[in-house]
Amino acid sequence: MSRPPKEVHLAAHFPGVNNTTVWSDPAAGSHIEFESFARFARTAERAKFDFLFLAEGLRLREQGGQIYDLDVMGRPDTFAVLAALSAVTERLGLAGTINSTFNEPFEVARQFATLDHLSGGRAAWNVVTSWDAFTGENFRRGGFLAEADRYTRAERFLRAAWTLFDSWRGDEILADKASGRFLTTPSPGAFAVHDDHFDIAGHFTVPRGPQGRPVIFQAGDSDSGREFAAATADAIFSRHGTLEAGQAFYADVKARLARHGRTPDSLKVLPAATFVLGDTDADAREQAAVVRRQQVSGQTAIRLLEQVWNRDLSAYDPDGSLPDIDPLVGESHIAQGRASVRMNRDPLAVAKQWRELASAKKLSIRDLMIEVSARQTFVGSPATVARVINDLVQADASDGFILVPHITPGGLDAFAETVVPLLQERGVFRTEYTGTTLRHHLGLGAAP
Questions:
Q1: Is the preceding peptide bond at 186 cis, omega within 30 degrees of 0?
Q2: Is 222 annotated as a binding residue?
Q3: 101 among the known binding-site residues?
Q4: Which among 216, 232, 219 is positioned nearest to 112, based on CA atoms?
Q5: Is 418 annotated as a binding residue?
Q6: Which tens digit of pLDDT belongs to each residue from 122-170?
């Protein structure tokens, strides 16, 4: 007996200025003024998306001792933006990345509980860890933790926050309101957390929100990250957007749930995805090539190459050949605060691979950077993109996608106007919101 079609989940990521956005395009607007966030959120809500997602940077990235070009717009505070968006939207979920390495449970739980109240139950927390001392310099508790310790602290942090969220019991407070008596036993908001990371006790200041607890997202791809998600998260972000890689990741994280007493539908797998639409598939491919060259200018190509070579390469021609010299391997690095530095753990091997690729395809530095940093997941006509998205979801390569447009704030418009109706015609995407909370949008059960 075949199963009914799975519902497709869609979300939108406001990317700010990074290597995905084409900030130089005349259609690009501000990446920090509130109206950009508001327009983007309204489009996502009009299309009945599950949620809007904001990443967060806790320090401006640097390269060669200077602020990295694409960070000069700044990185506004996540909570402030999401709280403001709660006033201009009604149903759209509001998800924010908040770090568990440098923050403290009380302040983060208080902010998310407040956001959940302000939004009527639409708050979500992407729990992340931090891996570098460079970012830690912005905080009193500087430095960084080993990977295993980061995830241990993250789990202790999250469980401490849950203790705070759960410290107010709704039924007891309602009973007290009905009787007209003050509730003294148990004391509302009383909490105590004593473990190897936190030693806190007191009274939480915010009553339990509409969702009880915010929806929890997790983005780690390592074994530790996947296990953390299986134990604690409601959704996990993924960079595996193709069929085979997506199915392998999906099967792996879903299989981990049983040992934590959870069912497969209690964790949603949501890869990030970019898109380029055209009137035809051929038209979309042509536009995609233009977008890639806009995303990777000559200057950007040199910057990206420097992150592997760990050298000042500003004298090199981006339309010329790769440097003859090898990457500089050492503790210090020309780029600070960039995940790509950590991902390229063996720069000599990467350089060898890139040289072979450049030689085989006769690629310049810029052409090579376009080739190796491609981020275009869906390219085609609206009909093609709708079909591929649905095929991947039905094949258990994902439960949906978090869309990252290359133009903000208007880059989501075409997808909302052309692809979403086709998914709705297939009966795999909602035509109206049927609930008010993000937990409902995602098909999750009530929080414990």
A1: yes
A2: yes
A3: no
A4: 216
A5: no
A6: 999 999 888 777 777 888 666 667 777 888 899 999 999 999 999 987 5
